[in-house]
């Protein structure tokens, strides 16, 4: 990824996190973190990876985010000083869940060896 795309991704990540916090009414007790933004080379699309806690609320909150992506996108247009604002979509970042699964497997292996 080019330096420019990295800068734009970081800017979108910061702005979207602030927009979610300010503009959207998330269910009580739900925390949404923007973990990564993947921007297409033509800057027309951006996939926003989020982590959602608690994990049991991940699917309905992800659906809520995608249903409200136009609200986020319109707020983002006001913050970006680019010719085009990318169309956004939200996806669940599986990294944390995979890490927890690996840790539990390692705990089982280590516990079984003693």
TrEMBL record:
Purpose: One of several proteins that assist in the late maturation steps of the functional core of the 30S ribosomal subunit. Associates with free 30S ribosomal subunits (but not with 30S subunits that are part of 70S ribosomes or polysomes). Required for efficient processing of 16S rRNA. May interact with the 5'-terminal helix region of 16S rRNA.
> What subcellular locations does the record give?
Cytoplasm
Give the Pfam families listed for this entry.
Answer: RBFA
| Molecular function per GO | ribosomal small subunit binding
Superkingdom of origin: Bacteria
Q: Name one GO cellular component term.
A: cytosol
Q: What are its GO biological-process terms? A: maturation of SSU-rRNA
Return the similarity comment: Belongs to the RbfA family.
Which keywords has UniProt assigned to this entry?
Answer: Cytoplasm, Ribosome biogenesis
What is the organism of origin for this protein? Candidatus Komeilibacteria bacterium RIFCSPLOWO2_02_FULL_48_11
| Quaternary structure annotation from Swiss-Prot or TrEMBL | Monomer. Binds 30S ribosomal subunits, but not 50S ribosomal subunits or 70S ribosomes.
**Record-linked PROSITE patterns:** RBFA (PS01319)
Q: What is this protein called?
A: Ribosome-binding factor A
Q: Which InterPro entries match?
A: KH_dom-like_a/b, RbfA, RbfA_dom_sf, Ribosome-bd_factorA_CS
């Amino acid at each position: 990824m080019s330096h420019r795309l990295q800068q734009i991704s970081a800017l979108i990540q910061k702005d979207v996190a602030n927009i979610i916090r300010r503009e959207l009414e998330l269910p009580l007790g739900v925390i949404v973190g923007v973990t990564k933004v993947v921007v297409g080379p033509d800057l027309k699309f951006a996939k926003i990876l989020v982590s959602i806690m608690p994990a049991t609320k991940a699917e309905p909150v992800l659906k809520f985010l995608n249903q409200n992506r136009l609200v986020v996108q319109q707020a983002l247009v006001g913050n970006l000083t680019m010719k085009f604002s990318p169309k956004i979509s939200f996806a669940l970042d599986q990294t944390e869940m995979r890490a927890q699964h690996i840790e539990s497997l390692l705990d089982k292996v280590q516990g079984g060896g003693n």
